[in-house]
């Protein structure tokens, strides 16, 4: 309930008794009341506010006025003057004892927000809540942080009951990044969610009956050159040597073979880590490609594992940026001996 304001108004009656003499029966200086005591009914009005700074503890401020029916409250009498009016103001603290009579503030789930203002009753104990009593949802995906397994989901992305971006086809690439959202079950995909096509002929591997077709060769729906009939399984061994003449030397496009071995390992000096061009970073002699950057070490690790599964030499580099006061987990692929080598590899990653 911390940070909750409660304004209030008060009106009532009081009884004022005033003796203009001291304890030795001596008249107080400047008093215009000569004999007897002053006693009269007063009318009291107040306006104030309670600011709860903790559960059951509030800071109070109020200001009011006390109106008398005579001109005697202050001990002075002035003919034809108005009746006395006394202005008051006070600042203090109040503590409501929980469960004591009807004055206690009922908070059934113990989240600090009283039941009559709690929009999410039954919040689990220890859960951080908003002023409305609802669990905090830092990334605004509709799944409270308490159960959110992906606490840094991008804004506007559809998530499942665990707070993670929806992956309709279950290929490991969330829908908001998936360029091939209806991939069949069990098919290996690239970082964009599309089936791997190692020979780059436009026919994904799981459909390609002629894998390894050289670049530039026109193929049919089976991934085979025109007029070439793929060899069907037989009980007898069949030997065939189809001759295919490539139009030009083949280069890899949308994939990187799982047999890729980085030319340099273990020599990268992070103390001299510097961005040299686009997503390429270098320590001055060795180069790496930065795939992505995350605030969550868990998410970065998952992405890196996915890249490793596709044959990339991926790793996570942790770095603290003082300017933003945050720690980032950068997913990278390496290592390369030259900028051109790293740029060529980056094009394959895209």
Please give a quick description of this structure:
With 350 residues, the chain is mainly β. 7% of the residues lie in helices and 25% in strands. Mean pLDDT is 78; it is low at 248-265.
List keywords for this structure.
single chain, 350 residues, mainly beta, Alpha-Beta Plaits, five-stranded antiparallel β-sheet, four-stranded antiparallel β-sheet, 2 helices, 9 strands, 7% helix, 25% strand, elongated
Q: What would you say this structure looks like, in words?
A:
With 350 residues, the protein is mainly beta. Among the domains are: 4-95, no CATH class; 197-221 and 237-255, no CATH class; 270-349, 2-Layer Sandwich (Alpha-Beta Plaits). Helix content is 7%, strand content 25%. It is built from 2 helices and 9 strands. The protein has helices at 297-309, 339-349; strands at 4-18, 38-54, 57-68, 85-95, 274-277, 280-282, 287-294, 314-321, 326-336. Strands 5-6-7-9-8 form a 5-stranded antiparallel beta sheet.
């Amino acid at each position: 309930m911390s940070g909750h304001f409660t304004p209030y108004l008060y009106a009532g009656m009081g009884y004022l008794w005033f003796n203009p003499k001291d304890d030795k029966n001596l008249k107080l200086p400047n008093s215009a009341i000569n004999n007897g005591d002053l006693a009269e009914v007063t009318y009291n009005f107040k306006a104030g506010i309670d600011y709860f700074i903790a559960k059951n503890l509030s800071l109070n401020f109020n200001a009011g006025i006390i109106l008398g029916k005579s001109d005697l409250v202050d001990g002075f009498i002035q003919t034809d003057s108005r009746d006395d009016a006394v202005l008051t103001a006070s600042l203090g603290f109040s503590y409501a004892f929980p469960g004591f009579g009807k004055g206690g503030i009922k908070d059934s789930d113990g989240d600090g927000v009283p039941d009559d203002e709690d929009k999410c009753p039954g919040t689990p104990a220890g859960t951080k809540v908003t002023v409305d009593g609802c669990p905090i949802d830092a990334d605004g995906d509709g799944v409270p942080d308490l159960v959110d397994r992906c606490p840094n989901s991008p804004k506007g992305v559809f998530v499942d009951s665990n707070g993670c971006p929806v992956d309709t086809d279950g290929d490991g690439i969330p829908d908001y990044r998936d360029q091939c959202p209806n991939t069949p079950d069990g098919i290996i995909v690239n970082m964009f969610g599309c089936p791997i096509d190692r020979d780059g002929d436009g026919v994904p591997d799981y459909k390609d009956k002629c894998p390894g077709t050289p670049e530039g060769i026109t193929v049919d729906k089976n991934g085979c050159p025109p007029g070439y009939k793929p060899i069907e399984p037989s009980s007898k061994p069949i030997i065939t040597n189809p001759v295919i003449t490539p139009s030009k030397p083949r280069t890899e496009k949308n994939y990187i073979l799982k047999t890729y071995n980085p030319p340099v390992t273990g020599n990268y000096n992070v103390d001299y880590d510097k961005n040299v061009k686009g997503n390429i970073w270098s320590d001055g002699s060795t180069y790496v490609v930065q795939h992505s950057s995350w605030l969550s070490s868990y998410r970065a690790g998952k992405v890196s594992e996915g890249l490793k599964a596709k044959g990339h030499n991926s790793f996570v580099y942790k770095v603290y940026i003082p300017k933003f006061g945050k720690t980032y987990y950068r997913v990278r692929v390496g290592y390369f001996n030259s900028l051109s080598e790293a740029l060529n590899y980056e094009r394959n990653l895209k």
